[in-house]
Amino acid sequence: MALWIVRHTKPLIDPGICYGALDIEADAAATLASATALAEVLPNGLRVDVSPLRRCQQLQVALQSLRTDLVFTLEPRLAEMHFGVWEGIAWNCIDPQAMSAWTDDFGNHRFGGVESTNSVLERVAQVWDQTVLNRTQDHVWITHAGVARAADLISKGIREVSDARQWPKLAPSYGDWVTLSL
Fold first, then answer.
1. d(CA 172, CA 38)
2. Can you give the residue range of the structural domain that contains 44?
3. Number of domains in the chain
4. Segment 110-148, tens digit of pLDDT
């Protein structure tokens, strides 16, 4: 069984801005192109869990219009990490001490005051475990880079991090996907 992890397309926000929980739209043309490419390769009748954020919902709507055989479910635990007070702030304008506090205790520090990296890993692991438990066929998540990175770690048996160097550098490009074995 495979888990398809699909990343939303490029959000309509200036480069270099910290966004996670910000509910921003994605590029409409890129979303349609991504949905079209995905519709051509997904097996029939799959369940698709979708982040509640608008940029993922757009991809769901586009894919749903092309593939009526897919079953879509809203899954709040697939939302991107919430960066709290740093949401919408340029990364290069974030207090260097705040960045250091996060990288010094990468797993447990609540960067921006809301959510830690390990909190994200925990909620993504809950969805992972539920997906594994209920698997009868491939499964799809429409989600974000942070969730894709968390799923990559979970697929390797890692459910908690302490050091930023443990966090995967790579994630699917905007509008692209990876598959992981369940």
1. 13
2. 2-181
3. 1
4. 999 999 999 999 999 999 999 998 878 899 999 999 999
